[in-house]
Write a structure and sequence with these properties.
Layout lengths: L1 H11 L1 E2 L2 E3 L6 E4 L2 H18 L3 H23 L5 E5 L9 E9 L6 E6 L4 E6 L3 E9 L4 E3 L4 E5 L6 E9 L3 E3 L7 H10 L7 E6 L11 H5 L5 E5 H6 L1 E5 L8 H17 L3 E5 L4 E5 L2 H13 L1
Parallel strand pairs: 1-11, 15-16
Antiparallel strand pairs: 2-4, 3-11, 4-5, 5-8, 6-7, 6-10, 9-12, 10-11, 13-14, 16-17
Helix pairs in contact: 2-3, 7-8
């Protein structure tokens, strides 16, 4: 029975990035101390009828009206609220995956909400037309990350009634491998960055970002302009090919971690790099977009 209920809820509250909550998206029912409140209503009604006491019956009708008003106010906390979800980051194993939730309402009003997941519970006050909130999840394993169902509910104003909705996200998130660099690779990497003067190739025009130590000051002193000395090894530093088969590791995960480490080193040194995996590859490049593409490729490997 519980499995059928979960399937129905997941189908009913399937979330595709954004939604404006309507009447069919909000569930509402008595909540916790509300059951005791119902018992109080029943007791006062029975007592008022048995003793034919209009004062007790009047009190019974009063507290019943409070319960009815609670249903309406609690329902309005969620009704007509627009929700948008976004997650574009690709964290590495051990880092935090952020899910950004944006709340929008047509007019500024106070909404007292709770956001609940399998292991988190947060209280949120929305009093502006636009409000954002970030949920953090631990990235424990490389690969695809499935967001748990998110429940958004309210028990305002008296805690007698709860109105709630679910977000079953179809957003896909990916976790990249943890960066790892062996000591042997570091030594080889440092040696590769020591240009050999005997392997001089050519002079080329100076570009913004080139090292001043590579400038040919002799040509600059003659007034011929700024040129950079290109050596065989020095040229190779700016183009790195990272091959899966060349990683000195036995397991698949260790190889991906080493590749992630080389990607980070190349980004720090502003080098262009390409990735070659058994079933995919990334062309030569560098920068923020290249790094994001490399993370995604390694996460999906």
């Amino acid at each position: 029975m519980s499995t059928m209920w979960q399937k129905w809820v997941a189908k009913r509250f399937y979330f595709q990035g954004q939604k404006q909550l309507s009447q069919k998206d909000v569930l509402i029912f008595i909540y916790q101390q509300g059951y005791l409140y119902l018992v109080l209503i029943l007791i006062t009604f029975v007592a008022g009828v048995n003793y034919a006491n209009n004062l007790i019956l009047g009190f019974c009708f009063l507290i019943t009206a409070v319960l009815c008003i609670s249903f309406y106010i609690t329902f309005k906390q969620l009704h007509d609220l627009a929700i948008e979800v976004e997650s574009n980051d690709i964290p590495k194993v051990g880092e935090t995956l952020q899910l950004k939730i944006y709340f929008k309402q047509s007019s500024a009003q106070q909404r007292y909400l709770w956001i609940k997941t399998e292991s988190q519970l947060h209280q949120v006050l929305i009093n502006e037309k636009k409000h954002s909130f970030i949920l953090n999840f631990n990235a424990e394993k490389r690969g695809e990350f499935q967001f748990p169902p998110i429940q958004i509910f309210s028990v305002y104003p008296f805690g007698l009634v709860r109105a709630w909705t679910y977000l079953y996200l179809n957003n896909k998130a990916w976790i990249a491998p943890k960066a790892s660099t062996g000591s042997s690779e570091n030594k080889h990497h440092q040696k590769a960055y020591e240009p050999d003067l005997d392997e001089f190739r050519e002079l080329r025009n100076y570009h913004l970002g080139d090292s001043f130590s590579a400038i040919s000051w002799k040509q600059a002193a003659r007034g011929q302009g700024l040129y950079v000395k290109i050596f065989e090894q020095f040229e190779d530093l700016h183009r790195i090919e990272i091959h899966y088969q060349h990683m000195p590791a036995n397991s698949h995960e260790e190889k991906l971690s080493l590749m992630m480490g080389l990607v980070e080193q190349a980004e720090q040194l502003n080098c262009q790099y390409a990735l070659y995996l058994p079933n995919a590859e990334l062309t030569l490049g560098n920068g923020q977009q290249q790094c994001a593409a490399a993370k995604l490729l390694l996460a999906q490997a």
